[in-house]
């Protein structure tokens, strides 16, 4: 039966974590996966999460099924966070939100939903993008194209190239856009450029699909929501996948959401009914625990305040690491100007390291990064930063 099954390549991100775990070097460093670590190198359990969890566990609640689209308090909290509590979209019933299995699950449910609309149009992802985007949309049946995004010469966005790509797509192309903290490059477009992207999406009748996995990691919750809010003001129908893996440090709980913005409350009812069918035939309904914690934190003012402070701590630590890293690299003898690392946003930096240099870091130093040169700055800390800077200086000089 399985004689013709080919060995699949390892996942470029989690496969690397497997190699890291197996590595015996005592001072190994994992800059591969997108996970925030504290200065002690630990994945934090946020105090707001712990408090909400303790209160929840103390209630000894039964574990019945929850609705196919997830519980209302969770979905409403997601909408408030994405669009702002006073958004007219929410008031007018134009947002359909379903709790999903992480941001990945939200992308897949959204892709399946669009595919069932039978629009016969491709999906477009940024070049480069998060490794899983292509796989998700291909698995849902899309032909996947790349739009120009990154300019390796400037370490920023090639916006003219992006515009040219977007303008070339046929009507109803699903365009996957990173709402903030672009993964893997850390290079975001400006507010004025978002407005231009929106105009193109409108005039070309594209389907915007905003992937929002890092809200709060660049400048703040509202500031990082700017793209979503501009699309909300545009009057368009669009999709948003969002995730609490990073912002709540709840990676393994798989807490995410898909929000679909429609034209009316009546349209929302029909969309929700079909969305539920997609979910029901996939995993039936979401798990209880993670969503209950997030809803409790977001809907309890004291816990919400605590979470916002903890999120700010994570954000500021990453910024400090970016700043210090640029200095340490120069001190270690790097001649190239790597100051772009400080300007990039969110967890990642597209370091410019080649696949060969990354391989040397792994073999010789036990420092793991993606072969594309993406490094997770959120895994740097005051104990490993000197080692990483020195090792990078060495491989760059070779
Ligand atoms: C990453 O990009 O490393 C994270 O988003 C984890 C994942 O699911 O790939």
TrEMBL record:
Needed cofactors, names only, are: pyridoxal 5'-phosphate
Record domain Aminotransferase class I/classII large: where: 27-392
One Gene Ontology term of the molecular function aspect: transaminase activity
- EC primary class: transferase
Q: Quaternary form?
A: Homodimer.
Q: Which family does it belong to?
A: Belongs to the class-I pyridoxal-phosphate-dependent aminotransferase family.
Name the UniProt record assigns to this protein: Aminotransferase
What is the phylogenetic placement of the source species in the record?
A: Bacteria, Pseudomonadati, Pseudomonadota, Betaproteobacteria, Burkholderiales
